[in-house]
Q: What sequence folds into this?
């Protein structure tokens, strides 16, 4: 029987802070750090940022250049207006603003995209965690052992990123383009039952750090190569399709709204730094066989993301599909249901 | 257990066309995705069973199972999504579209359902078949319409003669054509689905081929 731990307390997790090349560490090995401590100074290389004006204003790419207010070679700062689509009486006019500081390198009249060359600037990196520095690598990585609360997902994409947790108003919501607001820049958004392709595109343009969602369409996640990065990290907690985040997981996480966290799509996890962890979640002592009273999570299509406790173990149960299989009776929040033993996993 | 790689390359459209009800592409695709997360999933509703069976058919086809000495391998995964061995046989044969008579191996229990279970652990089943419309005896008559694929167990006798009565499309409509079934045969697969036939583009060879078919079927054939 599979064991799954949606929310796990870890006493010492290895957190890697990336400073990059040409950076300077401000701490030494074995130093204790708090989240506000500056651990390094980095000089990021000037990369490029692409803004899809046509996509954001919902206009044909060939017409986008007439809505762009800036010219090639101009300097632009974060928050400044890049393009505007004026509507009648200025009602519901749409705007595109810069999310980075830089120089407008190119305006592509065919694709309706603006390429911004980002300005090189010095940045100080805070520790972000309560912990102890264990290793400083010449490549600019600082490893810190720190206590965290870790959310484990079922699928994900994207590298490790950091940001502030922001809970969306409705956990049942299907996240579409209009659900993503400019104020979400730099945030890790939690909530929503389905993350759409349009919402991802808009979030990348705005500068959203990541998403923790219940579900995503399988086709959409396949479009993102697991080994590459599209500028955003996604953790899917339940599965594919429209599935809301499990209620108990969602409620436990809500305590951490506005907390600083690390999201890693590749590892399918969200790590929230804690000042201490009294007792670590012990996966070794969890019984690996089914028994009365044990907590389980269901992934049968009609009850996906539900959890409950085992109230009866049945040797052979005939399901409406005509299949006879070993089953369990599970007491969920609302009712008692029977599901095949293969369609559940023990949760911690 | 199907691997994630096999599932990842599965085309939802090709699965969709095998589902006997309207299911959107996204539904099918998400089902495939969830199957990759939980490969041991047992379908509890008829809807999920049909989708899973359609996925399995496509996977069997994509695996390009080779017919060596008229022997095919039944994939192990098929056991967890079929409610009976009969369903298993139909699903496998439907996926493989075997061309000839199905000579299912005889089990100790002399029972077609038992036979398929017995075959499964060693992963072997032998041959397949396709005919049109038949009678087991005067008392037992079964009528088939087009686009059907049905498996029928045959009573265990020394030999059995069944008669095929064609209802349309042949000069022998209404006649009863006897076919002898040997003792070893445990069941018949009735396949009345359309099958594409590729005929040589050269007129002369096409005429020769069609002529030979009509002669063998005892149909009036005009050499011109």
A:
């Amino acid at each position: 029987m599979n064991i799954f731990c949606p929310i796990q307390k870890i006493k010492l997790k290895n957190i890697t802070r990336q400073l990059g090349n040409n950076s300077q560490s401000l701490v030494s090995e074995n130093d204790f750090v708090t989240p506000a401590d500056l651990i390094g100074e980095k000089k990021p290389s000037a990369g490029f940022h692409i803004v899809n004006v046509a996509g954001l204003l919902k206009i044909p790419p060939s017409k986008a250049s007439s809505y762009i207010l800036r010219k090639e070679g101009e300097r632009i700062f974060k928050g400044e207006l890049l393009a505007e689509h004026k509507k009648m009486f200025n009602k519901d006019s749409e705007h595109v603003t810069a999310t980075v500081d830089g120089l407008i390198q190119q305006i592509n009249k065919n694709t309706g995209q603006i390429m911004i060359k980002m300005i090189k600037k010095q940045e100080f990196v805070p520790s972000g965690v309560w912990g102890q520095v264990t290793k400083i690598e010449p490549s600019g990585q600082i490893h810190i052992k720190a206590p965290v609360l870790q959310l484990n997902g079922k699928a994900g994409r994207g590298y490790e990123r950091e940001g502030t947790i922001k809970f969306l108003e409705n956990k049942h919501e299907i996240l579409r383009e209009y659900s993503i607001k400019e104020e979400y820049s730099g945030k890790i958004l939690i909530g929503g039952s389905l993350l759409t392709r349009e919402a991802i595109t808009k979030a990348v343009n705005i500068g959203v750090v990541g998403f923790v969602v219940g579900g995503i369409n399988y086709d959409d996640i396949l479009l993102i190569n697991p080994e590459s990065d599209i500028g955003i990290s996604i953790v899917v907690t339940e599965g594919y399709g429209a599935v809301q985040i499990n209620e108990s997981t969602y409620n436990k996480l809500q305590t951490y709204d506005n907390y600083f966290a690390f999201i890693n799509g590749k590892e399918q996890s969200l790590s929230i730094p804690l000042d201490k962890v009294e007792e670590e979640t012990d996966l070794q002592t969890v019984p690996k066989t089914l028994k009365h009273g044990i907590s389980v999570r269901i992934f049968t299509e009609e009850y996906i993301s539900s959890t409950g406790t085992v109230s009866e173990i049945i040797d052979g149960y005939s399901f409406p599909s005509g299949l006879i299989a070993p089953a369990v009776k599970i007491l969920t929040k609302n009712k008692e249901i029977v599901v095949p033993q293969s369609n559940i996993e023990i949760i911690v | 257990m199907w691997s994630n790689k096999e599932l990842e390359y599965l085309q939802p459209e090709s699965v969709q066309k095998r589902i006997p009800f309207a299911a959107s592409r996204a539904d099918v695709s998400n089902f495939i995705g969830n199957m990759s997360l939980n490969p041991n999933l047992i379908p509890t509703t008829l809807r999920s069973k049909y989708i899973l069976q359609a996925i399995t058919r496509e996977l069997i086809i994509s695996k390009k199972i080779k017919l060596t000495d008229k022997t095919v391998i039944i994939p192990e995964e098929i056991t967890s999504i079929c409610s009976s061995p009969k369903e298993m046989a139909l699903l496998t044969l439907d996926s493989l579209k075997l061309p000839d008579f199905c000579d299912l191996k005889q089990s100790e229990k002399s029972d077609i359902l038992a036979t398929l279970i017995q075959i499964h652990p060693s992963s072997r089943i032998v041959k397949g078949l396709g005919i049109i419309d038949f009678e087991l005896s005067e008392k037992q008559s079964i009528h088939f319409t087009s686009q059907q694929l049905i498996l029928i167990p045959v009573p265990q006798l020394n030999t059995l003669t069944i008669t095929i009565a064609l209802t349309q499309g042949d000069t022998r409509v209404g006649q009863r054509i006897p076919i002898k079934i040997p003792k070893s045969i445990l069941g018949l697969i009735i396949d009345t689905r359309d099958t594409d036939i590729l005929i040589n583009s050269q007129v002369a060879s096409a005429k020769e081929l069609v002529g030979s078919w009509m002669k063998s079927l005892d149909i009036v054939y005009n050499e011109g």
